[in-house]
Amino acid sequence: MKTAIVTGASSGIGFATAKALAAQGWRVIMASRNPEKNERAAKELQRLTGSGELIPMTLDLASFRSVRAFAKSFLEQQEGLDVLINNAGIYTSDFQKTEDGFEMQIGVNHFGHFLLTHLLRERLAQSEDPRLVVVSSVAHIQGQIDFDSFREEKGVYKGFRAYRQSKLANVLFTVEHARRFPDITANCLHPGGVRTPIATKHSNWYTNLGWRLLTPLLISPERGARTSLFLATAPEIKGQSGGYYDDKQRKRNLVPQARDEEMARRLWEYSEGVCSV
Fold it and tell me: Which residues pair with 133 in a beta bridge?
């Protein structure tokens, strides 16, 4: 039986991804921040899929302490890891910080997943077909990396600018991971415009309202999970790393800032330093 970890599995794209993998007979570790919500989600997926291999575990990507505790528990309690799906993400229109002092979006969307991947890489590499799947966004094409913004608010905080930066960091991380660890198939993706609460949980009233008005035009989480599932399971992807795929499972060319090798290296080394790895 294959094993996958899906971050942010208690709702949205993560829930749909976990559901599809469980229906295919996978053991799915549902890694989410809220333990009660995660337990309810696991029970619901068990009911929907008939699978008894849905395991909820608490993971708060805004806390390096929580990430380390999750990895320790997983490595001690579970055997095998075939796919790590870095799916969880946050958007906020107000400046907030993680437990470790980072701007919330870069902290959760990039640094938390960077540390998680590092801690689980050795176990993942033991699989016959190890895969790393990173959920980014088409928003990355307008992103720019500004190291000075990682810890401090610079002028008027702009949530979408911070979000675009974090999604570019996802792509740079994936490309650099593929270069450094060629034996692990690593790819990233844009899931499409998906009906999730990402822009309503931590936003001001007008962003919240705008997202709710836009919601009827967006695709379902099930459709949004398709590319994650494709990259996690498709035989033809094995060994093909460093790619960015769209919501129709098509490999797309990287924009210049996403194929900047020097920036990818700098971001990786910076992340190693702040994550103390």
Answer: 85, 187
